[in-house]
Design a protein that fits this description.
Elements lengths: L1 H7 L2 H7 L2 E5 L6 H10 L3 E4 L21 H10 L3 E5 L6 E4 L5 E2 L1 H14 L7 E4 L5 H8 L4 E4 L3 H11 L3 E3 L5 E3 L8 H15 L3 H12 L3 E8 L2 H13 L10 E5 L4 E5 L4 E6 L5 E8 L2 H15 L2
Amino acid sequence: YLDNIIAAVDVEAIKNKGLRVTLDPMYGVSQTSLKTLLSITRCELEIIHERHDTLFGGKLPAPNAQTLRSLQNYVLDRGCDIGVATDGDADRIGVIDDTGKFLHPNDILVLLYYYLVKYKGWSGPVVRNVATTHMLDRVAESFGQKCYEAPVGFKHISAKMQETDAIIGGESSGGLTVKGHIHGKDGIYAATLLVEMIAVSGKKLSEIAADIMKEYGAIHVAERDYRFTPEEKERIHNILMEERKLPEMPFETDHVSYMDGCKVYFKNGGWVIARFSGTEPLLRIFCEMEHEPDTVRMCNLFEEYLGL
């Protein structure tokens, strides 16, 4: 497994850069693999929350903006190039850039696809699920490629990647994989590829993100979760999926998809989706628009309409 990753990344480029990396395995299993990989590539590595703990330090081992405050502080205090966190089983990652900013999984996917095509010269489409950023569509189109949409669940991402010969696929929950590697999500390979991206591009993470924003514009995402009783779930399901009723929209609608939940696509490029989680008793609402107030407006509209 480690040999496969070493063969896939530009080890010499990373060696020559002398990067400072902080790893937060969140008391999980990534430490051995990433410590080996980053040591081979001569990164200056520091690790926090490294002991194995079946209770994960008493917190949920999910790498998000709330759980990675310690990693943020460590990256800033030590002047690191990147901070990487993995969830308990290391299939998902969270990233802190050189300025201490938490990078949303959407941002990581866009960064890596942009890097693979622009800097590594790869050519091919990208796959995302219905609740993942359409910024990937913009990047793909600019390189003459296509972005394919799949239902939530990594088996759907993997299947669509094989069907379309895509070079990368992922989800807004933090899981992704790259062509030529395993067909499941892998946070260890993703982390190594991000380190390679800094070395090969010669730019800081924040600089590459700024390049992408300058070229493709800004985009804003809002995410909300709602708990419900069994009776409420049936009521909401009937409204959205059986009767297929929707609130009156403030933007012109292009079309509506019921592939996985109810997703409304707007002609201005924005979208909103309401779907039941497959792993938790939650209704999730995601919205992406060019202007941040519009994302809040759309979430509030669905919240009020569904009586959440």
